[in-house]
Structures are given as C-alpha cells and as structure tokens.
Here is the input.
Amino acid sequence: MKPDYVRIFDTSLRDGEQAPGASMTSAEKLEVARALARLGVDVIEAGFPAASPDDLAAVQAISAEVGQQSVPGRPQAAPPIICGLARCTRNDIEAAWQGVKGARHPRIHTFLATSDIHLKHKLRLTRPEMIARAVEMVGFARSLCADVEFSPEDAGRSDPQFLYEVLAAVIKAGATTLNIPDTVGYTMPDEFGALIAGIIQHTPGARDVTISVHCHDDLGLAVANSLAGLRAGARQAEVTINGIGERAGNASLEELVMVLRTRGEKLGLQTGVDATQLCRVSRLVSRSTSYPVPPNKAIVGANAFAHESGIHQDGMIKNAQTYEIMRPEDVGAAQTMLVLGKHSGRNAFSKRLAELGYALEGDALLKAFNEFKKLADRKKEVHDADLIALASDERTTVPELWALETLQVVCGTTGLPTATVRLRDPDGKTHVHAAIGTGPVDACYKAIDGIVKVPVELLEFGISAVTEGIDALAEATVRVRHDAQRASHGHGADTDIVVASAKAYIASLNHVLSRQSSGRAQHPHEVSP
Here is the structure.
C-alpha cells in the first residue's frame, strides 16, 4: 500500500445499522454492499454475525457475492475485504469467521474495552485480565483468519500507557490492523491526533501494522478527529454513508473523502473512492434505512449546491468557483432530465433504471413501469429522482404481507377527517375499514390499524417532494416501534401525499410482521466500538 493511501473502511452495514430503527433486511444489506463495492471502498464491515441468524446469513451472502466478484465497471479492481465484527469471545469470533470465510479477502474484527470506566463498570476486569483475554482471542482469531483487526473500545478515554501495552500485546498475538475508536465522541482533534502519534511512536510493532481511526460524532467532531488521526499517521478510516450510526452517528464517508480530495494539496492523502457515485449511494442508504438526508448535509444534501442569495447567484453566473469549492458532478449531484414519457417503452425504462443502479426484473419491473406510465400521464416532466423513487418503492425487500388496494379520504375546514381503506391480506382476501382522525393521514393510519391490528407507536413521520413543482412525486418515510426496544421503518412514493403516507405505514407494519415471523434477534448495540 502506498504511504499516502488511506483505506476506506465502511461500517454502514454494521455500526450504521445500529442507529435506532435503521436495521436492514438481508436483501437490503446485499444491495448496499454491491453499491459500496462499486463506490470503491476498501473494506466493508458487513455485520455482526453473532447478533442473529439473519445477520450471519447477510454477511455470508455479501462474502459469497460482493467479496468474490470483480467490481462492475472496474475489471482490474479486486473485490473489497469483507469484515465481520466479534466481541472477544470464542463464539463471536467463530460466528464472524463463518460469516466472512467465503470472501476472497476475509477479515475478523474483534474488540475489548480499555478505558478504566468500561473495565470497572461494564466488564468488571482488571487491566491484566483484559490484556490476557485480548491476547487469547486475537490469537484465536488469527488461527482462523490471516487478517485480524483489534479495537480497544473507548480508546479516547483510556490511559495512553496502558493502551500502548495492550496494543503491543495484540500485535504479538497476530493483529494486522489496530483500530483506535473514539467510541463516545469525547476527544478534540488535537487530543486524538496526539493519541495516534503516541501509539505509533511508543507501541512496539505499530509501524508494521495498519493504524485505523473510528470516530463518533457526539460533539460534531467525528470527521475532524478522523482527519487529525490520518495526519498523525493512521492509514485507515472507519466511516459510514451519511454518517449514520450509534447516537449522533459516525464520521461521514462522503465528507471525509471529499476533504481528502478537495484539500489534497494540503493533506497529501488519497483514497480509491469513485466520488461521482457518492450522491447515489447516499440516497440508497437513506431509503434502505428510512433515515432522511438533511437538506443542509455537506456533500450530498439537497442544498449542498443550492444558491439563493442574489450576491451568491451573481458570483455563480460569473464564475462558479466564487461560491463552490467542488463541482456538483464531482459527487454525482448533477440532475439529469429523463427523455422518457408516456410513449416510452419498457426496454428504455429498464435501461435507464439500470444506469441509475436499479436493476429491476420480472414483476418488480412491471409494477415500476406501470407506475411510471401513470406518473408520466400526470407530470409534465419526469426526472431521474422520480424514477429512483418509483424503483425504490416497487422493489420489495420485505415480504408484501398487507397491500393497499384503495384509499378514499374526506377532509377540509368543516366536518371530521375520515378515511376509508381497502387492504389485501397475505391470503389474498380484502378488508375494508373506515376511521376518523385529527387529519387525513391520522384517519388513514387509524383505518389501517383497524384492519392489520399490529400495536405500534409512531415515532417519526416525514414527507418530502422528490422534485419541484405542484405535480411532484411525494416520498413518505415512517418509523414505528413495536416493543420497547425495536423500531421498524417504511417508505412510500406517490403523487398523492396521503397515498404515499399510507404506503409507507403499511411497509413499516409489514417490516414488523416479517420480523416476528423470522424471529430475528436484536443487535447487542451496547457492546460495539
């Protein structure tokens, strides 16, 4: 590896998925993994195989496909390293190995806390006991896999001298990558940079392995801390798409990559990421998790390249560099107008979907095409964003147990908002129910509840226009909680915002029901680095 090359380790499918309500199905995780490989990330942390049978199956599927095949469009590129997370226990490490061993380049990532607060209150281990366990488990992992990563959890609040001792011991035991996590986002950039520099200087063997950084965003410093670590000598950065993850999230992949690219003359570091795909992958992860991207989000937000001020607009007209330090097309933000309309055929439609990264087939393609035809009849202009929303809405990765057949709403300034819905159950039978609510969406949701009868708490509801104009396609996202700890999400798109809202709510209920039938276990969020 070149001395100026930074490995991008994406943990959207593991740490990112641990964000409340952001869990993905196996099919969704596989699709995101394909996109990450096309994006050019070096390592994909595909999951936490010991967390549940479904997570193990997802990691195995990603290892067998994404971890074996050459990257589409980049025939010379090797498949990415596929990584599985494990606590420092034999069962976890064995599960991780079962998950990743099908990849051409597998990696086991194991971790154990080193801060006194974790050792005393969570692990109840002495420092010598912690070192002994870490050495034993890293050695066990190395007996299974040639590539082993070790993370001293809560390194940012650990005693540096003890940290050097731990890291030296796991290097001798076989660790090939040392990941230094700022688990709670506590450190400042100068502190974190000094921590990395100290590890490289004072840990025997540290210069012979890869030093990695994994920073959380509790104080909004995740990207800044990651950059400080890289400038101090780390050469792997652990990041997530859109910065999703535990609590306030992780360092954002798109932000870190574009800082390294835009300020390359100052930093002197490079990555293998194809930045032109950043916006597309951001949208995919947003839809897969139902975590919307804030409009003001750096790099991939809807307003990242928007200019409203007259002074700014005047400068942009004269020279775009007056107010843009990146070009929209550099990150895939340029909007392409579809030359498709109501007379377009299915082949042209399918081809354009594939170009946008949505390869639909069979019934899913037919459903999306039929919806496209309806949309083209209603809209004057159809954009790529409309097409992406339709494709995401029609491609069902969660079984469609309940389906919306018809919906009628009565509302206004007089009378009570009333909704009547007709749903099709998993056996194909139809059910009709009417309800009154505080508004049309509330009435609609109560009518759906009257049929499906799955007790859930609505945590979040969002509606947004995909494109501009009164005829814009609406996207609805819903997050519900079925019990005290689990959250599920749903997504729906339609030109009618109430219909889009109903689709999203039904999708979230289907997510709950599919989980109940599969018996998928909860991720052990509280122990990950």
User: Anything to note?
Assistant: The chain has three domains: 7-276, 346-394, 403-518.
